Amino acid sequence: MNKVEVTKDVYWVGAVDWDVRSFHGFTYSTHRGTSYNAYLIADEKIALVDTVHEAFADELLARVREIVAPERIDYIVVNHVEIDHSGSLREIAAAAPRAEIVCSPRAPEGIQRYFRLGRELRTVKTGAELKLGRRTLRFVEIPMLHWPDSMVSYLVEDRLLLSNDAFGQHLASSQRFAEDIAPEIVMDEAVKYYANILAPFSNLVKRKIPEIVEMGIQPKMIAPSHGVIWKNPQTIVDAYLRWASGAAEERAVILYDTMWGSTQLMARAVMEGIVAEGVPALLLRVPVTDRGDIMKEVFLAKGVLVGSSTINNGMLPTLAPIMEDLVGLKFKGKLAAAFGSFGWGGGAVTEIETALKKAGFRLFGSNAQLKWRPDEADLARCVSFGREFAKALKEHKAGDSTQ
Ligand code: FEO
Question: How far is CA 314 from the centre of its chain?
Answer without folding.
Answer: 30
